[in-house]
Amino acid sequence: MNLKLAIWDKLEFEIVYTEFTKSFSFLAFSFLFLLIAKKDIKYVNLLVFVHFAICIFAFLQHPLSPFASQMLEIKRFLYSSAESDRILGKLKTEGVYIDGGYGGRFRLAGPFVTSINFAYFAISSVIINFYLYLKYKKRIYLFYLAVLLVASFFTQTRSLLLAEIILIFGFLFFGPFKKQGLYKMAIVLGLSMALLFVYFGKDYLSTGDSRITKISDGQHGDGRPLLWLTAAHTVVNYPFGITAENYMEVKKEMFIRYGHPIILTMPSHNGLINIGFQYSFLGYILFFFLVIFLLHFINLLEPKYAVFFKLALVAYLINAFFHNNFVLSEDYTFYLVLMLIPLNMYTENNLLEKNDQIGTEKNMIEI
Questions:
Q1: Backbone φ and ψ of 36, nearest 5°
Q2: CB count, 10 Å around CB of 55?
Q3: How do residues 137-165 score in pLDDT, each as one tens digit?
């Protein structure tokens, strides 16, 4: 909660009510997911299949798809009651891309409003499927994972791709494998080749329509560090809460100093800095203790899963770092990822109890 707005009685009841209801529903749904997952994994498989269906819907909506127009009509029906200019504008833009067949710059969003919303869904779903494959070694999870990675590529969201690369290759690098040395050598070699390609191919990467093949998107990418600096400066100057007037005052000050017009027109584009905007400095304290709390329980897990969940947190934060959504505010699917931690502890304890019971029965037989 923004302390200054609360003290000045400027918090709008509708916003407080909406945020409280949303947070409560997220927690309730996550706890329900944990209870169901403990009962039978097939219910989790159903959720994973729904995520797969969302990806298929997204693929069919791409301008290169012959069914793009029909999928867009379905999406318009889903948002038929929406009155937000932002949502209506996004739907109109998608229609222009689809009607013109402009696939180069189209950013896959599926049933979500924007590709950024899809990115938050995708990183969580990638983590869930990766975990399920590690746990049960079923190839269907690898197939779902591959579909999600392809969909992530078509979102043209570079932070999402970076997060997924760190999750997957980080696990291969740090995970306790027999062939860990081979994996490390392959990753280092691949990273070196990628850096050489970026260095010598920078002219090629600066051309074309795709955001993936361009180092700069030509819009607000180059000015994003200034947005972060402006937002951080605002949080430091107003630690007990930030009003719209406070933010604009700092924006004007930073614009005079750096002269980049993006400072005046764009928000912070950084989910971690936004903690200070929504919750004041207390938000950083609570977030710090949340991370410590999670790491405490992650360290109790089997080494393989401890490495995995630490990388999952890093991957989530990397994706959140480059976008304007508030951490754990719009991305309910990551709550499901967090529920996998107690779920894994539950399954490990059950396995130990079964092994102890089997050992006791063998001893009884021998006696």
A1: -65, -40
A2: 23
A3: 999 999 999 999 999 999 988 899 999 99
